[in-house]
Specification:
It is built from six helices and ten strands, in the order βααβαβαββαβββαββ. It has a single domain (31-242), classed as Vaccinia Virus protein VP39 (Rossmann fold), CATH 3.40.50. The strands form two sheets. The protein has an eight-stranded mixed β-sheet. Strands 7-8 form a two-stranded antiparallel sheet. With 245 residues, the protein is of the alpha/beta class. Residues 86-173 form the Methyltransferase domain.
Length: 245
Amino acid sequence: MTPPGGAARVAAVPPATAPRASVSVPVRGPLPSTEDLAATQTSYDTVAGSYAALLEDELDARPVDRGLLAAFAETATTAGLGPVGDLGCGPGRVTGHLASLGVDAFGVDLSPGMVAEARRRHPDLRFEVGSILDLDLPDGYLGGALLWYSTVHTPPAQLPEVFAEVHRVLAPGAPLITAFKVGDRQVHLQHAYGHNLSLQVYWTPMELVTDLLDQAGLVIDARMVCEPAPHEKQPQGYVMAHRPA
């Protein structure tokens, strides 16, 4: 799900062969408690309708996002290794976009309210309640996985667990694309989308994300950082990877 703050659009693409800087932020810090996860779920249940209405047409003004999603869709459909999971799908906005590109896509989200909104808006697609930490999917089931700002409420210390689970459910050769906030900070939101809520939001260094994906056994294919748009405060990061065959 896209968190409060949106996504930036001015692309800066480092060469694929450029060496990576060393990771400046170790994977440390507390893991989320049961109460933290419940607060995230409840918050998105509360804002589901407002969130879906506000972001319904967001991709129309996001050519970079559409281009990256098109590249991912082409990779997944060409490989033809199975259905594509939009993991942390929110109200199904990106799931529906992938389906419009010919992808056999379905969505999973922690929030029952978001899943209900997704089913209402996209009755022809499948959406299920579930956690990206423990997906109810067989090993190697997915022909592609999307983590579109799905980890912004996940502390860095828990990212290895998320990426290991994604590796488990991806078929050998299947692609992954992830989008996230780039940086080294966290904030606690108490109001967004016209509602009171409780959400912890994390910014993560690009080098940390790519290193952790690599450690999970995934091969990095491309990475990109977009500078903040005028109304935004942080860069956005995108990584495409795949599980090796």
